[in-house]
Amino acid sequence: MKYLLLVHHDEDAFGKMSETTRKEMLHESVQLTHQLHAKRQYLSASPLQPASTAVLVQVREGKPMVTDGPFVETREQLAGYFLIDAKDLDEATSIAVRVPGARIGTVEVRPLIEISGLPTHECL
Hints:
The chain is α+β, with helices and mostly antiparallel strands and 124 residues long. It is 27% helix and 33% strand. The protein has a single domain, classed as 2-Layer Sandwich (Alpha-Beta Plaits), CATH 3.30.70.
């Protein structure tokens, strides 16, 4: 089963960490992806640009509305993701514990709904 691990943390606090610490966390994340790949569990992963670079898109009564970010005043922002394949929620959770961002924020573990007829990831 596929799971999306959504990494949330405080962008301001992360930005105040030393460059060395941020690079070490990124290196740990890359190592984790290689470990998952070796077990055929890795599908995709990436950090995200800051929330201030995002836009919100809504369509109401056929009219698109695009709003610049950030949108929600929260302590933590969506910082990145891991898309994995795990046998169950327990295994997905045990992988989420290894995500470096879990030490400074929260990793949300969400199972995906498999829909037939979608293009496969080989098209990426």
